[in-house]
Amino acid sequence: MAKESIQQDRNFDDLAQRFKKNIYGGLKGDIRLAVLERDCKAQLPIYPSSPKPVKPWRILDAGGGQGQFSLQWAKAGHDVVICDISIEMLKLAEEQIKTLGLEQQVTLIHSSVQDLHLHLDSKNQFDFVICHAVMEWLQEPQQLLPCLFEYLAPDAYLSLTFYNLHSLIYKNLLRTNFKKIINQDYGGSRGSLTPINPQDPGQVLGWIEQLPLSVLCHSGIRVFHDYIFNEEHRAREPENLLQLELEFSQREPYRSLGRYIHLLLQKNSAV
Q1: Are 222 and 28 contacting, i.e. CB atoms less than 8 angstroms apart?
Q2: Cα dihedral 148, 152, 155, 160 in deg (nearest 10)
Q3: What Å distances lie between residue 2 and 6, 189, 192, CA to CA?
Q4: Total number of domains constituting the chain
Q5: CATH number, domain containing residue 52
Q6: pLDDT category, 5, cuts 50, 70, 90?
Q7: Closest CA to 148 of 112, 198, 113
Q8: Which of the pair, 40 or 51, is modelled with greater confidence?
């Protein structure tokens, strides 16, 4: 089967609806949201469920697609900018924005993260930057963090998630797809939701160490759900499964097997 090209960043115009269903819908999406909410509530000084702040935050959802996570901040009165390379993903976001009556709170920008400077100047800094499931779709993922850093105000926060290479290797081992491992053939087939550049968490943490950023929280997302190959078993006890995902999401060695890794970072105040 033809492989997805790694010579260019992935645009989801052709898969917007499928992405919405497979990534954010159902139990997978519930687990993702539960981990993100738990981590952010524990580390951020404010959260959408907090009392309305005197001064709303400026929030950038970089590569935000449909804005599933950031729109709840807009509903709480914060000002949100969502940028994405896919116009079809932004159309889905616009539908939600109109349904929720958030036109005054949300700005949509059709742009890659790397080209965002063409729409926002360097003075446009944010209190909170969200960048979820973007790094693994980039041709040069190491360039993402320095780009995001430019938009962080002093003491601002960055929520970063990325597709975990260790999880992909382990799942292929369990399925006896040994040729993939031997050939290091990790990129997804054309039309697949397996990304072009799954990331080694150790490498990403190394990139973070090169910037004035502190790691406040490190979690795995779906640390065992995706290894349950029987779909009926996955859905048998969803409440218990969700609770156990949260329990093991920050505990090694399970955290390192999460399908995604979540890092909550803060820009060092001296910068």
Answers
A1: yes
A2: -30
A3: 12, 6, 10
A4: 1
A5: 3.40.50.150
A6: very low
A7: 113
A8: 40
Position 53, amino acid:
P
The residue range of the domain holding 216 is 16-267
Give a yes or no: residue 5 inside a domain: no
Is 95 part of a structural domain of the chain? yes
> Does the residue 96 lie in any domain?
yes
Of 46-55, 146-155, 237-246, where does mean pLDDT reach its minimum?
Answer: 46-55
Residue type, 233: H
Residue 7 maps to a domain: no
Amino acid at position 136, single letter: E
pLDDT, greater one: 3 or 205:
205
Residue whose token pair is 């400026």: 58
CB 214 within 8 A of CB 266: yes
> What does the pLDDT read at residue 51?
77
pLDDT, average across residues 153-175: 96
